[in-house]
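A.,

Following up on our hallway conversation. Structure tokens first:
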């Protein structure tokens, strides 16, 4: 692994939010009223839920703040505790958008409450493993990028939210590929 990064999801991309909401089977309305226990109020974006209440999202400092009436678990049954499942789906959709913009291939696997995406850089053969957890935490692990090659994808990580931790590994300090050597299973071997 070249490095590990842990990210706290921040909703900034309306397209990714729309994709996540649609995947969950809900509607995303612009400039609409969000329903709460005590009434309704206008919001920039509203996730219309089948129950009594909705989720309001208002843009503040280039980030959508999530506001919902969590009374009696009404909202949680659709989007998870503190909208955690919505944040997870948003992260996965944002990763796909960012990967496609960079020409990376994407494989997605959803099991045991986690969404795992494997991004492959065909040019270098490197891979980025992204695990999106319910609650809005995302972990990224890069591998197969010799030297500082993985750092060209830091902007992909930053697009997901704020970095909580970043840890370099020994692979990051390996030299770039040299003529006469081939990079196989995290090691350089002489070409035959």
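Then the amino acids I'd put at each of the 192 positions:
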């Amino acid at each position: 692994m070249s490095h590990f990064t842990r990210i706290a999801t921040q909703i900034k991309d309306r397209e990714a939010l729309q994709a996540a909401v649609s995947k969950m089977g809900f509607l995303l309305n612009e400039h609409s009223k969000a329903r709460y226990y005590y009434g309704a109020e206008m919001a920039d974006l509203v996730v219309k839920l089948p129950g009594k209440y909705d989720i309001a999202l208002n843009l503040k400092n280039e980030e959508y703040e999530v506001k919902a009436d969590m009374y009696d678990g009404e909202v949680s049954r659709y989007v998870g505790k503190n909208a955690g499942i919505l944040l997870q789906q948003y992260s996965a959709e944002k990763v796909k958008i960012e990967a496609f913009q960079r020409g990376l291939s994407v494989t997605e696997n959803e099991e045991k409450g986690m969404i795992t995406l494997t991004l492959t850089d065909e040019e270098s053969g490197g891979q980025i493993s992204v695990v999106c957890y319910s609650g809005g935490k995302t972990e990224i692990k890069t591998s197969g990028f010799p030297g500082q090659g993985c750092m060209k994808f830091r902007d992909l990580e930053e697009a997901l939210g704020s970095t909580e931790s970043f840890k370099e590994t020994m692979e990051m300090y390996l030299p770039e590929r040299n003529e006469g050597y081939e990079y196989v299973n995290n090691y350089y071997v002489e070409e035959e």
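The chain has two domains: 3-10+87-190, 14-86. Curious whether your intuition agrees with the design.

B.
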